[in-house]
Amino acid sequence: MAPSDRLTSRGWAILLVLSSAIFLEGIDISMMGVALPSIRDDLGMSTSSLQWVVSAYVLGYGGFVLLGGRAADLLGRRRMFVLWLTVFLLFSGLGGLATDGWMLIVARFVTGVAAAFMTPAGLSIITTTFPEGPQRNQALLVYAGIAAGGFSLGMVTGGLLTAIDWRWVFFAPVIMAAFILAAAVRLIPHDTPAARTRGGYDVGGTLSLTGAMLLLVYTVVMLPEVSIGSTATTAAAGVALLVAFVAIERRTRRPLLRLGLLRSAPLVRANLGAMMLVGGFFGFQFIAVLYLQEFRGWSETETGLALMILGLDAILAPTLTPILVRRFGNPTVIVVGLVLAAVAYALFLRVGADWTYAAMLPAFLTLSVAFALAYGPLTIAATDGVAEEEQGLASGVLTTSFQFGGALGLAVVTAAVVAGSGPAGADLDTFRTALLVPLAAALIGVVVTGSGLRRRARVPAEQEVAV
Q: Which residues pair with 422 in a beta bridge?
């Protein structure tokens, strides 16, 4: 890299603060899954109500993330990041102090809303602080690698903290958030909100879009729990609100979401690829945890340590991926990453009743490399070429794709496991059937993102003929 392409010491400091926040968000999500049995026993919650500890967070996150992205553009990225990081800190602490299940569920919902505003604000600070090109690419790959590492390491951390007391799963993020908040106030530069120059808010668009996202995420989250009729009703209501939102955006002078942004084929491909990548990854992890804990009888700590190898992407993403992106281009690296994800899921289809960890390791290693190759470049592709005043919105759309994809993948895999389970629980055939879901997601991702490669190949050929 030329000296002008390298990050400055201050740039690294800002990036570390923002990456720490997304690491916090990732570790907060993954720690929760390990702690759920202890939470149920201590608070006397039923199994059906326990799932809302996770679902409430996803509902708040997925329902408000597009609004969060637009709020960062209109009200100031630094302001939104600092404000909602503070809310995240406070309600994570409240969750640790909960004495009833409903208190914990409310705390998780508000924490999810806080993440919905904080995450796109942080990502758009990166895309507006670092110029498009090598600097921004390096920053985004480091950011994505640390985000993925947070999710992977959270399972290990959650197991260790739950062994002490499940409440530390909530208190530990409070301590970490306090340090990040102090550094953010000092290091993140002030920005000028777009609202100061343009003014005006799209209230109708805001209400219809937020309502639509809440209903659609609720539909996905409840997919394994409710009847087909209920699923169809909430899905139809969500789609109706989306139609109303589009009609409002076409008429308003200052839309919440400029619909032209969604006409960009590279942006659409990147977001669909993100949905497939994360949906498959979340679904696979759920299957792996069930296999290791319920079928094989491994402890939470043993399971977390076994899956810790997936955190290898936190090392590969900022080191190997930038080299490959510079050598082969962003689209090629994305497609290769999704192909490797499909290979990893196919390898795990051979899962046996007495598999050693060495037998599982090839699938885990391949998946960690796949995630390292695809996650960061998808983040770059989803924000490349977007105007500065819409970077928060583009970040919100991408975060929506990640969250919605994760929720959808988890819901479909859960439905497959529930449908195939007998009185004694899930067997190997059930796990193998459920594994077809992440495998299909990865293959769809390859087809969607691979179409961009074919398009890129045709353009130079047509230009050569013209010459």
A: 425
